[in-house]
Design a protein that fits this description.
This protein is 43% helix and 10% strand. With 429 residues, the protein is α/β, with parallel strands linked by helices.
Length: 429
């Protein structure tokens, strides 16, 4: 199957790749308030990802065509050699070896089998190339001086050897800033299967909990058990900061921290994983389906609470004396502006200090930070999105025949309460 029929995974990939980053960005604006930089980077990343999938699909199709052309050319060469030998052997039986072989080859060069020729210097010539790149098919008549008829065969297929790799995305930022909502909105716009998985239930293989293959099984379910479609999906792993490795004198074997990070390495990089058809843990009697993760886009998100302290210690140096810089206290670090500024300065070594292993951090080419929503943005969250809370509660009250009216002052008061509680957009409810 070449996957070229309408509705196939390859055709769907081409349809997604045709959507511009501006269209994806405008679609995110309908549901997500604020986070302009994150929405732009995510739009470009998703656009590039599915362009890569479309390019790789064309490469595989070209490679398959080249292999078919090579096999056809080889078959034609064998047929030409067979006809050449048969025509020579027929001439030997009729007129003798001296007239049949101009080179004066002795008769013992002819084997009992007409397809075997012992003299390697008298092998038949290669099939000549036609002007259009085809192979001229030789026949018994061509050996007698007749002009052979060219057979159409494209041997000059241009194949680019460049292999494009995917780019995974890591989102960090405070709770309620829209990380999960952006992933859901992208999946809704692109139409590809997306699974949102909570990293807190993952454990190392062999222990109580979910194996990392459970992520692929849920994606397989979301794709209606279509492997080709699942291999082009999106995986969003939430609460990724909860699998940070444990440290300290009392730390034991970390099966839900560092062990999970190590198990996720191959999935993030790209491998052919064996996924149980019926889910659950792997066993000897389980039936498996192979799934290639090299074209699955992984987006991981987490609040990374306390990371701002690590960044502050790295960027700010305390000293003594009059006019010296003093490190901010804990209350100053938790203010919205200061927290946003710290997250914008995040570097891979800060994530390693937080508890993520270097190999895991290196799997993400894009590390983005979301910002805390301001009071004005929280008011927009209440009213502007298509699925805003104000519309939800108006509909809810309308089921009882009650009309709900909310003043601008009440909206701003609700937004201020959520902002003071540091709970983000979730706290508005």
């Amino acid at each position: 199957q070449d996957g070229s029929h309408p509705g196939s995974a390859s055709q769907q990939t081409l349809d997604i790749a045709s959507r511009t980053p501006r269209e994806l960005f405008n679609g995110l604006n309908e549901f997500v308030i604020g986070q302009e930089r994150v929405k732009k980077v995510l739009s470009v990343s998703v656009h590039n990802h599915y362009n890569i999938l479309a390019f790789n699909a064309r490469q595989r199709a070209a490679q398959l065509e080249a292999e078919r052309a090579e096999a056809t050319a080889k078959t034609m060469d064998e047929r030409q050699a067979r006809r050449w030998y048969q025509s020579k052997f027929a001439d030997v039986n009729k007129t003798g070896p001296s007239s049949a072989f101009e080179s004066g080859s002795p008769m013992d060069n002819v084997s009992d089998d007409p397809l075997v020729w012992r003299d390697v210097t008298a092998l038949p010539p290669k099939a000549p190339l036609a002007a259009d790149g085809g192979v001229q098919a030789a026949s018994a008549g061509s050996a007698q001086g007749q002009q052979p008829q060219p057979t159409k065969l494209n041997r000059n297929i241009d194949i680019d050897v460049t292999q494009l790799d995917k780019s995974n995305v890591l989102l960090i930022g405070p709770t309620g800033s829209g990380k999960t909502l952006m992933a859901k909105t992208l999946a809704r716009m692109t139409g590809v299967p997306l699974v949102i998985f909570d990293a807190t239930c993952l454990t190392q293989a062999g222990y109580i909990g979910e194996d990392v293959e459970a992520i692929l099984y849920k994606l397989y379910q979301e794709a209606d058990f279509d492997v080709e479609l699942a291999q082009r999906g999106i995986v969003y792993i939430d609460e990724i900061d909860k699998i940070a490795k444990s440290s300290g004198p009392g730390a034991t074997r970390d099966v839900s921290g560092e062990g999970v990070q190590q198990a996720l390495l191959k999935l993030l990089e790209g491998t052919v994983a064996n996924v149980p058809k019926k889910g659950g843990h792997k066993s000897v009697r389980s039936e498996y389906v192979q799934m290639d993760t090299s074209e699955i886009l992984f987006i991981c998100g987490g609040a990374f609470s306390g990371l701002e302290k690590t960044i502050s210690r790295r960027t700010m140096k305390s000293s003594m004396g009059f006019g010296a810089r003093v490190l901010p206290n804990e209350e100053d670090e938790l203010k919205g502006g200061s927290l946003d500024d710290m997250f914008k300065k995040v570097e891979p070594k800060d994530l390693v200090s937080f508890g993520m292993i270097p190999e895991f951090v290196g799997r993400f080419s894009h590390v983005l930070s979301t910002t805390q929503l301001t009071i004005d943005e929280l008011v927009k969250v209440l009213t502007e999105p298509k699925n805003s809370l104000a519309k939800q509660y108006r509909t809810l009250f309308g089921l009882q025949g009650v009309e709900l009216l909310i003043t601008d002052g009440a909206l701003r008061r609700i937004a201020k309460m959520a902002h003071d509680r540091k709970t983000g957009a979730r706290g508005l409810r």
